[in-house]
Amino acid sequence: MNNENQQLVNLVGIKKVFYTDDVETHALNDINLSINKGEYLSITGPSGCGKSTLLSLLGLLDTSTSGAYQLAGHDAASLDRDERARIRNKEIGFVFQAFNLISDMSVAENVELPLTYREDISKEKRKEMVSQALEKVDMLHRANHFPSQLSGGQQQRVAVARAISGNPSIILADEPTGNLDSKNAQSVMTLLDQLHEQGATICMVTHDPKSAARAERTIEVFDGKIVADRTTEKAPLIAV
Amino acid sequence: MSLSLDIKYSARLLGKKPAFTALTVCIVAVGLGLTLYAFSLLNGLLFTPLSFADKEPIYAVESMYDHTHLSRRPADTMDLYHLKQDKSLFKDMGFYTEGTTFVGGTGEGLRKFNSTYTSWNLFSFTGVQPVLGRTLSPEDQFEGAEQVLVMGYDMWQSYFNGDPNVIGKVVPIDGSDPARVVGVMPEGFAFPSVAQMWQPLPQSIVEPTERDSSRLFAYAKLAGGVSLKQAQLSLYNTSLELSQTLPEEARGMISADGRYLSIEPFKKANITQYYGMFLALWAVSVLILLLACINVGNLLLARVNERIKEVAIRVALGVPRKRLILQMLLESVFICLLGGFIALLLAGWGLDVTNEIFDETYAVDDLKPFWWVVGLDGESMLVLLGTIVGMVVVTGFIPAKRSLNGDFNAVLRDGTRGALGQKAAKVTKVLVVSEILLSAVVLILATILLVSSHGATNADYGVNTEKRLTAQLQLPPTAYPIRDETEFEHEDRVARSKFYYDLKASLESRDDINGVVFMSQLPGTGGGTSHFEIEGREAPVYNENPYSNNEGVSRDSWYALGMEIVEGRDFDFRDVGEGVNSMIINESIAKEFFPDGDAVGKRVRQVFRNNKRDWNTIVGIVSDTYHGTTMDFSGSPYNVYHVMDNWGMFQVMVAINYEGSQAQAQQGLIDEVNRVNPDVGIFHMQSYDELIEKPILLIAAVSKIFLLCGLVAAFLAASGIYAVAANSIQQRTQEIGVRRALGSTDGKIMKLFMKQASWQLMVGLVVGIGLSVWLLGFMSQTMVFNNLSYWLGMFGMPLMIIAIVLFATYIPTRKVIELEPSDALHHN
Fold first, then answer.
1. Separation between Cα atoms, residue A28 and residue B348, nearest integer Å
2. Is B742 close to A56, i.e. CB distance below 8 A?
3. Is the per-residue pLDDT at B107 higher than 60?
4. What single string gives the DSSP state of each residue in B754-790?
5. Cα distances (angstroms) measured from residue A179 to each of A152, B31, B259, B488
6. How far does the CA of residue B743 sit from the closest CA of chain A (Å)?
7. B612 strand-pairing partners
8. Which residues on A lie below 8 Å from B414 (Cβ)?
9. What residue ranges do the domains of chain A occupy?
10. The domain defined by A38-51+85-231 carries CATH number 3.40.50.300
11. Which DSSP string corresponds to B565-582?
12. Is A176 touching B (CB cutoff 8 A)?
């Protein structure tokens, strides 16, 4: 397999500028980054350095001010809103710091939600995919519960199940342990490790060095620029 | 100290958002203003029992209300007399009948007054003392006693110029039978309702020894400890007993369920025909108040959502629960107090306008009940204060509850979580459904009433009203007596009619008069129907027969109204004579019941529950007219006419088609009446258009209030639904962000919200329309709504609400969708 075939994400000269009144804020400046399939990447940096903005661009949740971005062979600049939505749905799985589960939907419904936006999956198939995803995160027994009935760690596991339910090309996790205690944080990180072991591509934003150390490659962002890109030795997997 | 800080803080918050403050104050002012206005109006007209110095409620005792003729009916005097003797039920009772009396000799000195013939105790019953002389005494009722008269203040002022020596003066009554003035009552006293003068009923009538044909109304006070319900039950039972013994000619007063005598609060009995309309007005006002409460509550809720982080910080700093609630309520207190003050001004202005409308409505006939002067009184102020307190609680409670139930830890932690929990989402859904429901009821009722009254004002009554003067004529009874049940009866009736024909000839001989018609009631007025059966096609039960309005009309007169005979012939001398029974029907009857064109020559007769009239032969068919207003239950498109000669009417309406000015025609009428018989009274002179408008002036006025309610409701509904929907969607911005992050397209998000809005619409509209139908059913007992109003109300208004809701969902959803998903996800 050549390098081009393995490349999932390719950012070239990406800039992101926010305009508020007369003030220009350069959140990202000349970002060049590529991520290969199966990679486990962490993006670190201090608060306000632009790491979450970078993740939003990677997840097609926002558009860059300039530069080129290719995701799974798609040129982001040429995509309209609906195409971007479809790519988010098929290629990307999101895990958010605040879980972002929909409170009046059950666990199973939350996990099923991205699948309902696909027209090529039958209802039976959806149910099967939901069960598989929940089983992977060990939450199948809570399928009919509502988010408010779960602990933070459990909610994040459900959020991970939702992210992987459609077999995306890449999982984008934004501070996935930010709202969790250490025990639950450990559990979620282990879950991400396991998913990576199974071949998932993961890109995680974190300011926690321990979490960052779980990834095999770490990007450090400072003042909107990538200041370091290093391959790290993976921290040992701790069973929970 | 802490309270003053909270007050300052609340004032500062309101001052920082002047547009928000102005909007909420405006909504409160409108909602409260309408409620205060409606309460004060109905309190004056209906809710507060009529009473005098002793504060004891006065009741009306009479026959059951006649819904087919929209008129109150007197009861048999014998029955009233027996009721009066029942001291276990009634503390006091008196009888009366009202009419029109001409006072002051002949010609131009003749003046019309509303007269009341009454039991002598009317004045002691009310406890009101005269300003001059005395009131009636028992001796005034004795047979052979001198005719006496107690004057009202207005009559004293207008007829005697306030002469302090008026007592003892003798006034000619109805051109003869002079009466001596014995007393003058104080200004404003017009009991039982519109009296300008009082004369005693003869003792033989008020204390009958046997049943005769006399019928009277009664005023009464209940005995101590007797409730209205008990009295009503007692009268119902009495009615059932009497229904077995009432003479044949009185049995028509018994309703189908055996009811005959009724007792109602005096004010209510006076406006039976408007009762449903006034209650609807009250219901609509209360609904608008609720709508306003929900709107203000929602606006304050939106404010709390904006300030949820500030609230969370206060909670974290240990603010006591009570203090937090107080903080939320303080804003409501500011808004409701300011809105309440404006509402007071608005209601006061509205009541002033209403008094002017009442005066205008009854300017021609002086028939405004004396208590129909509305204003803001102590009770109104209490209601205002009570409503303000209620509004503060309702509008402050929702946001206060939201403040207390938030997940403050989550809010403080990430600034976004807890923006819309399940409970808050449910509250929002309930708010939207409530807005839709209330808007539907208010808009449907307001539209139906408004369109129907507009239709009644502009209806085609089948007559040409241009250059038509109308008036009422009244013959002096002593000059034109009817010797009932003698061989001279018919001759006397024809003699009465002769006056009218002499006047007709005299008027039509003038160059400025084109035509004159006399009718018992002119088209557009009167109304009231009786059932008729067609020979050979009689229904088994009388009320399964069709019904029509019945009028007496002068011969050779249709042209004066622009009406015409379309088949057969007009009335002529062949129709005048004892036992001669002929009739002319209108085109609607002919088309409906004689579609083969064979109406002329057929026989028809009036039928009642307990008797049937003689057969009448149809001699002609006349063009269609409509008697009564199209809004009255008593109105009917079917009309039957009889020649007036055989009736010999004491009072008659006249319509004159004139050339030149109306003033000239009025003078012409006065001149010709004086020439033919100067003792004949002329009153209620007005144009035909004014005549038609008069019966619906009050309805039209109330309809204008409904229009105002409708506009207010539309404004509140549109702004409220938009605000609630926008607030709800805005609170779900983060959820929309999540859905979009997960791959939902814009179209799918929009579809989701539209689907939810559709559900809310369906629930709100189904309940709202159901409630409207129920209320309309209640109102339609006394009012008729036209088809157009139903279409506009039942379909137009829901469609408008659907458009508002979908628009109110589309715009904010569109706005949120236009955000980048990353912005939506981090929306706070």
1. 64
2. no
3. no
4. HHHHHHHHHHHHHHHHHHHHHHHHHHTTTB---HHHH
5. 7, 46, 77, 108
6. 4
7. B607
8. 97-98, 179
9. 38-51+85-231
10. yes
11. EEEE----GGG-STT--E
12. no
Which residues neighbour B7 within 8 Å (Cβ) at sequence distance 6 or greater? B330
Reduced to 3 states, what is the DSSP secondary structure of residue B438?
A: helix
Coil, strand or helix: which one is B447? helix
Q: Rounded mean pLDDT of chain B?
A: 84
DSSP 8-state code for residue A199 = T
What's the CA gap between B547 and B542, in Å, rounded?
Answer: 10
Range in B125-129, B229-233, B441-445 with the lowest mean pLDDT? B441-445
Pick the range with the lowest mean pLDDT from A196-205, B586-595, B775-784, B788-797. Answer: B775-784
CB atoms within 10 A of CB A214: 24
pLDDT at B11: 83
Q: Which of B423, B427, B738, B823 to mutate to test the interface with A (most CBs of A within 10 A)?
A: B738
Burial class of B99 by CB neighbour count within 10 A (0 to 12, 13 to 18, 19+): exposed
pLDDT at B425: 67
CA distance, residue A101 to nearest chain B CA (Å): 8
User: B627 and B524 in contact (C-beta within 8 Å)?
Assistant: yes
Name the phi and psi angles at B95, rounded to 5: -120, 155
Q: Is there a contact between B278 and B45 (Cβ–Cβ < 8 Å)?
A: yes
Say whether A213 sits in a helix, a strand or coil. coil
| DSSP designation for B108 | G
Measured in whole angstroms, the distance separating CA B273 from the mean position of its chain's CA atoms is: 6
Closest CA to A220 of A234, A200, A210, A205: A205
Reading the block at residue B440, the tokens are 């539907």
Q: Which of B416, B422, B741 sits opposite A98 (nearest CB)?
A: B416
What is the reported pLDDT for B227?
Answer: 93
Averaged over B570-581, what is the pLDDT?
Answer: 90
**How many angstroms separate the CA atoms of B257 and A190, rounded?**
84
* pLDDT of A238 strictly over 50: no
- Say which DSSP state B515 is in: E
Could you give the C-alpha distances from B769 to B439, B481, B505, B763, in angstroms and in order? 10, 57, 57, 10
Q: Does pLDDT of B318 surpass 90?
A: no
Nearest CA in chain A to B407: A148
pLDDT digits (tens, 9 = 90+) for A221-234: 999 999 999 887 65
Reading the block at residue A97, the tokens are: 């710091």
Tens-digit pLDDT profile for residues B212-241: 778 899 999 999 889 999 999 999 888 888
B4-22 per-position pLDDT tens digit? 777 887 888 788 888 888 8
What tens digit of pLDDT does each residue of A155-205 get?
A: 999 999 999 998 898 999 998 988 888 888 888 888 889 889 888 899 999
CA distance from start to end of chain B: 33
A232 HSE (CA, 13 A, CB side): 21
Whether the link from the prior residue into B192 is cis, omega within 30° of 0, is yes
**Mean pLDDT across the stretch B288-314?**
77
Q: Which two tokens stand for residue B348?
A: 């006061």
Domains of chain B: which residue ranges? 1-89+223-418, 97-206, 446-456+694-828, 477-678
List the single residue in A62, A97, A102 with the smallest CB-CB distance to B738: A102
Rounded Cα gap, residues B67 and B63, in angstroms: 12
B75 - beta bridge partners? B216
pLDDT in tens, B196-210: 999 999 888 888 888
3-state secondary structure of B745: coil
Q: Are A186 and A193 contacting, i.e. CB atoms less than 8 angstroms apart?
A: no
> pTM to 2 decimals?
0.71
pLDDT at B217: 94
Q: What is the pLDDT of residue A35?
A: 93
Helix (H/G/I), strand (E/B), else coil: A203: strand
Phi, psi of B529 (to 5 degrees): -125, 155
3-state secondary structure of A200: coil
